[in-house]
Amino acid sequence: MEVVVAMAGASLLAYGQVREGLTQSAILKKQAEEAEREGQLALRQAEVERQQAEMNMTEADIEKRKGEIQVNLQREKAEKILGEHRARLARAGVSFTGSPLEYLGDEAARAEYDRELIRYEAGLKSWEKSREGTIRLDKAKLLEAEAPMYGVQASIYRRGAKEAKIGGYLRGLGTLAMAAGTLGKAKTPAPSSDWNWGGYAPGDPTFGRGTPY
User: pTM of the prediction?
Assistant: First the structure.
């Protein structure tokens, strides 16, 4: 009965060790799958960031070209207005000296200021778009560099899962083997020290005096 109880206890302990190993293995496998998903997500996010960066760079070029177009339109408009002023003054017989000349000079300076303002605003918008594109491109490169690290982490988790599973089985088998060995020793009878020769034991007073006949 004691043998049965002992083996049952050893079996339960071994089962617990195996189950513990399997549970730890399942946890590590799940962590490996999560790491792989994180790696794939990082690559997808990097692709999105690259696409957005390209869009930002394109928008930067568009803003720059828009500024150039606006500057040319403003120059044409200003030249037209100045030309009309010159023609009006000429028809009025006003000489291009003194106040009329200063007036035309002020108009030309104001037109140049407007063009510089257009250039500045267009350049600022272009710079902002370009800067945003650079930031997104750097982020994409960082994500692409991080993605393989998730793969390495997943490999470590999977190796740990395999080792945990094998370790659980080995511990369980070891427990059963130790229990079987211990019980086997307990069942083997100990050798007797009461040996004798011809019916005479060492403690017999006649031991050693010859065999009586």
Answer: 0.62
Over its length of 213 residues, how does the chain's per-residue pLDDT go in tens digits? 666 676 777 788 888 888 999 999 999 999 999 999 999 999 999 999 999 999 999 999 999 999 999 999 988 888 888 888 778 777 777 665 667 667 777 888 888 888 899 999 999 999 999 999 999 999 999 999 999 999 999 999 999 999 999 998 888 888 888 877 776 665 555 555 554 545 544 555 554 454 444
Give the Cα separation of 141 and 53 in Å (integer): 11
CA–CA distance from 208 to each of 123, 139, 157, 202, 211 (Å)?
A: 124, 101, 75, 8, 8
CA gap 35, 147 in Å, rounded: 9
Tokens matching residue 80: 């037209």
State how far the Cα of 63 lies from the Cα of 100, in Å rounded to an integer: 37
Q: Strand locations in 91-152, DSSP E?
A: none
Give the phi and the psi of residue 47 in degrees, each rounded to 5.
-65, -40
- Do 133 and 60 contact (CB within 8 A), yes or no? yes
